[in-house]
Design brief:
The complex is a heterodimer. Chain A is of the alpha+beta class. In chain A, 59% of the residues lie in helices and 16% in strands. In chain A, the strands form 2 sheets. In chain A, strands 2, 3, 4, 5, 8 and 9 form a 6-stranded antiparallel beta sheet that branches. In chain A, strands 1-11-10-6-7 form a 5-stranded antiparallel beta sheet, with helices on one face. In chain A, strand 2 and strand 3 form a beta hairpin. Chain A is rod-shaped and about 235 Å long. By secondary structure, chain B is α/β, with parallel strands linked by helices. The N and C termini of chain B lie far apart (38 Å). The chains are: A alpha+beta, B alpha/beta. The interface between A and B is medium-sized, with 23 and 14 residues.
Chain lengths: 413, 129
Amino acid sequence: MNLLNNDIIFLIIIALAILIFIFYHFIIVKNKMKEKNEKAIEEFQVIEKTKIEIGEIKNSLKTEKENFEEEKKKSEEKNRKTWQMSEAIYKEKALIASENEKLLKEKEKLENEKKKFEEKNKKLWSQSIAIFKEKDKIEILKKEIEEKHHNVTESIRYAKRIQKAILPTDEFLKQTLPNAFVLYRPKDIVSGDFYWIAETENTILIAAADCTGHGVPGAFMSTLCIEKLNEAVTNSDDVSVILQSVNNQIKKVLHQSSKADSTHDGMDVALVSLNFNVQRFLLENQPSTANCQIEYAGANRPLWLIRKGQTEIEEIKATKVAIGGFTEDEQIFTKHKIELKKGDTIYIFSDGFADQFNSDDKKLMTRMFKEIVLSIQDKSMDEQKVYLNSFIENWKGNIEQTDDILVIGIRIY
Amino acid sequence: MAENSYTVEQSTNTPLINFDAQSGIFELKGKSIPENPVQYYIPLFNWLDNYIQNPFPQTILNIQLDYFNTSSAKCIVDLFKKLEQISKNGKGETTINWLYNEQDEDMLEAGEDYKSIIKIPFNLVSFIK
């Protein structure tokens, strides 16, 4: 019995020692583990923390990257735009460059032209100086011509006074032929047309004459012809004899022969004589039913007669030769005797009225002249003159008068 | 031989003159109211004096005047007389055609007067204007 107990107790003590050892180890280990664990936890925690931090960093990096990407996009966009712009600018620049080039060339050209112009200008200037000098000369010449023209015109105006003095005065006309008119419109200052009135014991003689030419030569001729008429009427009051005499005298004075170099100047004329009885009708305004007689002879100028109330013109044709020139000395100018009644009207005239042109270059012509004269038979002689004058004035318009104009109208009272 | 033609342009106071020696066709047209007709027609007459020495076998003058002054009238006679010379000398035939506006009895009458004194064929031809 004791022995056993000791063993056991020993055993137990050993077991206990082992247990304590183990326990002890266990605690140490556990402690160590715990420590380790704590450390590990701590480390884990650090790691976790770091992990979080890294995540954060990652996130922030991500955002930054995104931002960066966005920036990049923006900048790319910007770049693109900028590039486009710069392309446009480049093109523009190229254009401007070529424009510039053109402008330069243009400038060069202009400069060349300018040079040329300057040269031309120089020439023109020298020319204009020459012209200016010429102009001065011309001015002087112009003044001279104007002065000469003035003198010539004045001289002709003076001649007109003489011509007017030779023509019958208005008073004499009114007194001898109270119921008549004379429309006298020279083409120039002096005239180749003239009218002539002479009283003899038994008759009044009236002539409407148209000398060759107008203006100064016409006036020379008219002066000569008037003088020859005046001379002739001292010998005879017969219209035919007077014309024959004037023909001879003019040929003599102008030394006209059949020679080729002699002048052919002379006159066309209508000459009328009114016998005493007619004169009395005219003068005294006495109504009369008695017939009266006129005599007419003409050289190329007719006589028109309109019987009272009639609508036609009776034309008494002239002898178809002129006074003077190549007309023979023996030439007879046929005499016509015409019976007239109160209210009948006669006309003698030069060709000037019918020959007047208008601005359309249309000639009035005898046909229209006749129509005009017929259309004014209800008018008095004074009114007829006014009418014919304004008619020819209107017809003529702004163009020059073609020739001298002379119309004489006489109405038997 | 005369110069081939004698030509003068028409003006306000002077007629168109176109005398062609090659065809013998002469034309005178317009107004004849120069201040000095005698002087004016001298060159034409000088030319004609040459022409009538050696004329075209047939000469035709077409003359169409609207108006001429009394001093031109004599020059027109001289012109006709020169053409008459051609026939007289037996160097050719000559015809004058006097053209006048049918309304213009003055120009008809003038033509009739010329016709009566000219001894070569002289036709009065009216036209409507």
